[in-house]
Structure formats: structure tokens, C-alpha cells
Amino acid sequence: MLQPSFAKGREIVYGTDFGSPIPDLARSVLQDPSQLQLASQRMAAHLHAAQGGSASAGVFLCSLARADSIDRLIIMKAEHQEGVRLRQTVDDDGVISFEVEHLDELILGRAAQVYKIALLWISPTSDRLTGLMVDRQNGQGYADYFLDRYLGFELVHQAEKLTEDFVKSMGRFLKSSSLSDEKKLRYGGAIAAVLESPTPSLNASNFVRDFIDREDRDELIALLPQQVLANEFRKDTTLVSSAIGGLRVRTQHGVIIQASTGAIDSGLVEVSDTSIVINDNPESYDLSKGPR
Asked: d(Cα 67, Cα 236) in Å, to the nearest integer?
């Protein structure tokens, strides 16, 4: 039932100590299945403590599985559902009756929402804890707390995470009150151009040197994670695809209207030959007229 989800799973590995008890608990269960009950209780308590107050309520499941002759541990957070089971019976006189049973412990029905899944095992070649992680609540992204704060793992392929960290840092930088509107527009255009360019790698230090005015560099450098700043890495926009691309219109009156791909795909912004409509605002912009 879970196999289709793992087709889009991210490869994860235990390497950096994030202070999570999950790696030790997972290893103990994989080496001694009798530890499953007590270990799963601690895993559930840790999930409750690690997730934010805005996280969706759900049911925690910890289970052992076996695939390709390797023992594996499934950790899952899923939506709690209720349902009704109908049973038909026929007595000796041929009278048909129905028994209806209320089920309040469903978690894997066809319409159930599976929020987050981790499949963990001990690599037979390196003896390291490795696995797959799926976060079905966040589309292309994933909840940071689930990967490091809860599981205590890190991505095997770091390119998408480093690209996301770079974009998030730039986002915080562009909100700085010390920047003029002209600089925000110029710097924002530079980051969009770099992300959309065919260049396969991204070098944050070169970006700061080439596109950021000297007096603003220290502020941006302070916001960039050291791992992003110190390395040139493969550019992977998987986690930030909704923040780039999209629509950019310069009207005949000099007004620039820009919308991300995500805003257009979600229907928040609609474009026709003569107007742009923002659906959370009752007004629209008539492209044939000047700014209001």
C-alpha cells in the first residue's frame, strides 16, 4: 500500500548528529525486533515534541517490514479516519440481515491522507543507517523538522537543499529595510536570472561579488549558511520551482507586474489579453491604462 509513495522518496542517511533519538531507536529495533513496542512509544513522543503547534493532527505508526532480504523500519504519520463496516448474514430460514460496525481506528483507507513516511534500514555494505523519506503534505518540498529535528537524518543529495537555503536567504535579504526599492528589484532580478539560467552550478560567493553592491554584501553574507557560502554546488530548483519563472509584464506606462509560477498555477493570478486579475483582490489591472 505504501510502495507508490516511495517512488518519489528522498534518499536520506544518518551522518550528522542532530540530537534526535530516532537513529539509535531505529537501529535497536532493526537488530532486535522485540524492542519495537517500547521504542515506538519513544518515537511517537519525540514526534509530538518535534513538530510545531500548527502541524496537522494524525496517527503515528511504527512497523517492521522486509524487502530484498533486508529488515526495514517504517515510521509513518497518517490521517485518522473513521468508517463503517457492513456485513451481510443469512440465517437458517433464509432471512437476510445486516450487521453494521463502527470503525474508529482506520489510518490507511483509500481516501486517507498519509502525511509523512520514513523507511529506514541498515546498509549491508556500510553498516550505516540509510533510508527513504516521503513528505506528502508539502508537494515538492518537505518539513525541515521531520528530516533533521525528528528523524535526525540528512539528504544524500544536498543540491536541492543548498539551492533552497540560498533562495530563502536571498528572500530574507530582500525584505531588509536598509535596501531601496530599486535595489530590491535589481537584486531580485539577478537571483531569478541565475536560477533560470542554463548554468548547472551555483556559486554564492560569486553571486555576491557579481550582483550585490559592496555596501550591502556583509548583510547578505551574514544571512547565508556557511555550507552554501563555502561551496559551489549543483543547482537544483526542485524545492523552489514555484518561486521562479512565471509572469513578468512591463506595461506601456512603465509599470512592472510580476507573478510566480505558483501564483498562476493556483489561480491566484489570471492573465488575459487586456487585463491581469488578482483573485484575492476585487480590482484588476487594465493593461491599456496607466497605474491607479
From this structure: 31
Residues written for the chain: 292
With beta carbons less than 8 A apart as the criterion, state whether 290 and 253 touch.
Answer: yes
Average pLDDT, 10 consecutive residues per value, the chain (292 residues): 73 87 96 95 92 76 91 88 83 88 70 80 92 74 80 84 89 89 87 87 91 94 88 81 58 52 48 50 47 44
Q: Where are the alpha helices (DSSP H) in the chain?
A: 3-6, 22-31, 36-50, 144, 159-174, 181-196, 204-211, 214-223, 226-230, 261-265
CA distances to 23, 61, 83 from 57, in Å: 24, 13, 18
Give the C-alpha separation, 289 to 276, whole Å.
12
Pair type for strands 10-13 and 154-155: antiparallel
Extended strands (E) in 220-268: 232-234, 247-250, 256-259
